[in-house]
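Sequence in, structure out.
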Amino acid sequence: MLSRRGLLAGSALALLAGCSPAEPPPGPAPVPAPTRPSAPRDPVTVQRMRSAARGTDVDLVLITPAGIPAAGLPVCLALHGRGARARTFLSLGVPDLLTEAVRAGTPPFAVAAVDGDTYWVDVGSGDDPQRMLTEEVPAWLVARDLRPASAVFGISMGGFGALRFARAHPDLKAVATASAALFVDWPDARSRKVFSGEDNWRAEEPLLHTPDLRPATLGVWCGESDPFLGADKKLVKAVSPAVSRFSPGGHKDAYWRGILPDVLKFVGERI
């Protein structure tokens, strides 16, 4: 039996316990550290990116061979033609053609397409696609566990842009053009109503800067019914590229779909 003194002591302890300060409430959960975007898991991803160089948002289209891990793949930039956009390479069948090329033995690589304009050069309008390709796209690729671009391919206006990019990046391993929109003189270029003046055109026109191009890395394709056939033949004569192929076809999707397997193989063997 408890004594009276023991009961009093127990009551006092209970009272003290009831009056003890409560534990402070838990603080806010820690904010997780930002993570890098993961490498594309699908053969095709399309993301909207802000380009300060162009002063607008652009599509970034990434295409990788199906069944091949994307991380660490080398990259070929793909530059579209006038009036088209980055997604054009999807409608041309690049995803399936790239997968088929790799299955046939071409070393795997990724294709990265972005939206461009003004022949992919700065014409003084505040829109500078070349700066986007040089200063912004490499970071976009690295953030997705891809390598910076080591090759470039362009169709029509994109061919002009690809050759301009190659002049500034002589370390590229492959440069390919299809139906490159080149201009043999200023009246021809002026008719496009793109360049700010003759000096602007002369600074950018690939045909006026052919010594800057490396023959061993260059491939040129053009249809025999293409309006740019004469200009592209002039390019071939001046540079003597590793590959030059003129075959039946015009300035149309059907021709470009037909040559894309050869172009992808050309790039893959060098990249």
